[in-house]
Design goal:
With 750 residues, the protein is of the alpha+beta class. The strands form 10 sheets. Strands 13, 14, 32, 33, 34, 35, 36, 37, 38 and 39 form a 10-stranded mixed sheet that branches. An 8-stranded parallel barrel has the order 15-16-19-27-28-29-30-31, surrounded by 4 helices.
Length: 750
């Protein structure tokens, strides 16, 4: 068969022969005048093959013998040059022996594609196919012609079987805490648009916020400079943050510093530097653009690095103990009221204290030890609770993996001694840092009768480079996998951590074992790539995980810029239609075979009884066909909302479930929210059996719905016999056998 038409779309290139050059082991065996780098007449790329053939001469291409069954078609583009009319034929070779000739029509003066089946070239069943030629068939010299983009194609790939997802509304049921949908530092407009329940004021600079001066020291983030915030009104920066949060409808989370120092300002609210170059000498970096005297505190980059030591903390800071911070809490109470009265409800105890010796080395050069952390968390929490007993207090706000197990002192000591020993840990029974701290909090609670710390809070960033703008192919796949560190009890983190993180289950296990009743929080995290759809699918995956794993609080660092893909991923959960409609608030089970490729989260929505499904195709290489099977919920139709690489949340046509099942394609790197309205089945009764004084009745309806069974002996007077809730679409209930004839009816309840 000879086709002078575009290659069929269902074929796929299996082996390229020529594209600007010979490829994949193909060699020139031709006996004609040949130029494999002609540039005058080209189909694709920048080069083609020019052929000037004498009588019976040919362009002959050879390859080591290979099975012909690997391919189905030979495809190439050919052009008759300025003359046209060339008479040619194509023959394949098996062990160097020519097979049947395939005659080509006379060439034209334009590019045309030739698509020949290997069967037509006599290669069916041949295992030693080793070449082909395009040859003069006229017996005369031919004008120059051109050949380009030669390839062998194979059969279309077998479509993969649909990915089967099972959703069961009666398994895995627990409320999703809305506070997992939080961010840090969102504007009032973003808070409203994303329908955020909480926002956080945190980070390194909050460790040294001076509420009296309204100034921050920016620590290692920016040359250890103390810089005035806008306005000299005490507390103005945080009050502005609280205003934005409340105006948007969110609860603010406010940091209370514990480090013992606060920013200091110079004359006229001027900047001050902890590592003045004038005072401490030349350093390897400085704030050349805005404050040249502010150095980075490093005398030499080494190795080893040489740091400025022995600096005076008073250069750019003032002492700030619990009395100082008590004034800060009183300011917040005076301006906003107490927690019960609608004031600030959530207080965070500082920020990442086990790396103070690094980020705040100008004032705390020695790592904080276990005793310091116990004493500070308890004393600052007691101070806050004394002012507002309804305050919810978070701690210890640790930075990440090492900060869960080792105090700042041990992290610093271990790094300096090749991680050979950890003296602070050894002095405290070789107990992991956070479990030890939980024990101390619990014992204080038992001794005083007062709980001081309400929420165990940590930070977590993936350590493989995900927290960046890197969207290389390898990084996108890593970003897809590494969200497993939040939940998977078998996933070994692929970075220096090299251990099973299982962050949310770990936090819950620690709380259960060391201080029951403590809630859990992830108050800083980010998987990066905010401006790319891969970052959006990761963000959507994280939000689904945190809800499913029953975390109490989470705040992303920071709020993505409005309109970025990661921003829209949050919006798909919290305000997909612009009217405040949200993903459900009662998590239910959704099972998928490979969450690195396709993740699904399911939740019922208490506001209307609907079922919401978030289907996330993380795969960058194409759509995935998915079969969604829903049990214990009558799935009939669904609204469809989608965010994909267009970066627009789109309302698509509704889709229909058949027998509570749907099969369809989910585009590559997309998030699809399905909203299924509640559909109640009629309540039906069927008698099953009556033995040993027990009468059993089969009750059919909608799983989760409440009903009442009434009984009557005369169809006139009815008495309630049983009130219950269907745990599945069909349940069996037992009743005492009546003494005489008895009739039963079912009544759905709201």
């Amino acid at each position: 068969m000879l086709l002078l038409a575009p290659l069929l779309s269902h074929g796929q290139t299996v082996q390229s022969v020529y594209a600007d050059a010979l490829q994949n082991g193909w060699q020139n065996y031709g006996w004609a005048q040949l130029d494999y780098a002609a540039t005058t007449t080209v189909h694709g790329g920048t080069k083609a093959i020019s052929v000037t053939a004498g009588a019976n001469q040919a362009l002959y291409l050879h390859h080591d013998a290979q099975p012909a069954a690997t391919f189905t078609n030979l495809s190439f583009w050919i052009h008759g040059g300025t003359a046209g009319g060339q008479l040619l034929q194509v023959q394949a070779t098996v062990n160097g022996v020519a097979q049947a000739a395939k005659v080509l029509p006379a060439l034209t003066k334009q590019w045309q594609q030739i698509n020949l089946t290997l069967t037509s070239l006599g290669l069916s069943g041949q295992s030693a196919f080793d070449g082909f030629w395009i040859q003069d068939r006229s017996g005369k010299a031919q004008p120059v012609f051109y050949v380009d983009d030669i390839s062998f194609t194979g059969p279309p790939p077998t479509p993969p079987a649909p990915i089967v997802v099972t959703v069961d509304t009666q398994r895995g049921r627990h409320p999703i805490h809305p506070e997992v949908y939080g961010v840090a530092f969102a504007s009032a407009a973003a808070v409203r648009d994303l329908n955020l329940p909480i926002t956080r004021s945190g980070g390194n600079s909050e460790t040294r916020y001076n509420w009296q001066l309204n100034a921050h020291n920016h620590a290692a983030d920016f040359y250890f400079e103390s810089i005035a915030d806008t306005g000299s009104t005490p507390g103005a920066a945080t009050d502005s943050f609280i205003t934005d949060s409340r105006n948007g409808g969110a609860q603010p989370m406010v940091t209370v510093p514990m480090i013992g120092w606060a920013a200091k300002l110079g004359p006229n609210r001027g900047k001050l530097a902890s590592f003045s170059i004038k005072k401490y000498g030349a350093q390897t970096g400085n704030d050349a653009a805005y404050f040249a005297d502010a150095g980075n505190g490093i005398k030499s980059d080494g190795p080893p690095k040489v740091y400025v030591t022995g600096n005076d903390p008073n250069d750019a800071n003032v002492p700030a103990d619990t009395v100082f911070q008590d004034g800060w809490v009183q300011h917040l109470l005076a301006k906003w009221g107490n927690a019960a009265g609608g004031g600030v409800r959530y207080y965070l105890l500082d920020n990442e204290p086990s790396i103070w010796h690094s980020t705040h080395r100008d004032i705390h050069p020695v790592g904080a030890n276990l005793d310091e952390m116990r004493d500070k968390t308890l004393s600052y929490a007691a101070m806050i609770k004394a002012r507002d007993a309804g305050a919810i207090i978070f701690g210890p706000e640790e930075w990440g993996w090492s900060g869960y197990f080792y105090s700042g002192y041990d992290q610093q000591y271990g790094a300096a001694h090749n991680y050979s020993s950890y003296p602070d840990r050894a002095a405290h029974g070789n107990t992991d840092y956070i479990p030890w701290l939980l024990d101390q909090w619990r014992m204080t609670n038992v001794a005083t009768g007062q709980r001081l710390i309400d929420v165990l809070s940590v930070h977590f960033y993936p350590q493989g480079g995900e927290f960046s703008d890197d969207v290389s192919a390898a990084m996108q796949l890593r970003r897809n996998r590494s969200t497993r560190s939040l939940w998977d009890t078998n996933y070994i983190d692929e970075t220096w951590i090299n251990a099973v993180v299982k962050l949310v289950p770990r936090l819950k296990d620690w709380v259960t074992g060391h201080y029951p009743g403590t809630r859990t929080a992830l108050t800083e995290y980010s998987w990066g790539a905010d401006g790319h759809i891969n970052g959006a699918t990761a963000q959507a995956d994280v939000l689904g995980i945190l809800g499913r794993e029953n975390l109490d609080f989470a705040t992303r660092w920071t709020c993505p810029a409005t309109g970025k893909p990661a921003y829209n991923a949050i919006k798909l959960y919290r305000n997909y239609d612009g009217n405040g409609s949200t993903f459900g608030d009662m998590s239910v089970a959704a099972a998928v075979p490979n969450p690195d490729e396709l993740a699904v989260f399911a939740a019922e929505r208490s506001a209307d009884g609907g079922l919401t499904l978030m289907v996330i195709n993380k795969a960058p290489d194409g759509p995935r066909t998915v079969t969604l099977n829903v049990t214990n919920f009558l799935a009939a139709a669904a609204q469809v909302w989608r965010l994909d690489s267009t970066n627009v949340i789109q309302r698509l046509p509704d889709l229909t479930f058949t027998n509570s099942s749907y099969t369809g394609a989910i585009p590559a790197q997309s998030m699809t929210l399905l909203v299924l309205p509640p559909t109640k089945r009629d309540l039906k009764l069927r008698a099953r059996s009556a033995t040993d004084g027990i009468f059993t009745v089969e009750v059919s309806g909608t799983a989760g719905s409440r009903y009442r069974l009434d009984s009557s002996g005369n169809f006139i007077t009815w008495q309630p016999a049983l009130t219950n809730q269907l745990t599945a679409d069909t349940d069996v209930v037992s009743l005492p056998v009546p003494n005489g004839p008895e009739f039963f009816r079912g009544e759905p309840l709201p």
